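Lab meeting tomorrow. Look over both lines:
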Amino acid sequence: MKTNPMKTIFTILILISNLTLFSQVDKVIGDYQSSVRTKKGDLIEWKLTLNENGTFFFQYYSNDKFQVPSEKNIYGKGTWTMENNVISFFSDKQKDIDEKNTLDFTNSKARFITKPTKNKTDQIIITRLQFLKSDIFWMAKTEILKI
């Protein structure tokens, strides 16, 4: 039985591209966190977990001495997908939004930034997510570092 060489090459290329895609997604999975302490001593923290099963959990924490209440925790959860290093977030209003998880991440997108494997220089590139857009106004342009 003869095999078509073009068919074999095409199949190999598809398998290689799928492996590359999965390895990139594997790099994204994990915990992200950033925090800022103001000159007044106030603290703001963002924590995000991207799970292997395509779900995420987010926590925003702030401790502002001049607000009542001074401590605030806001949560969100939902699902995520990745295409071309851009992560899209979705929150199902019936399943993901409740009394505790009030943030709706639908329409939020973040770029996954990491040092390319081809970059063999000493350049340090911190692995992070940079939010490009979000209906949550304070999330747009936020960067969260992978820990």
About this structure: The longest strand covers residues 71-83.
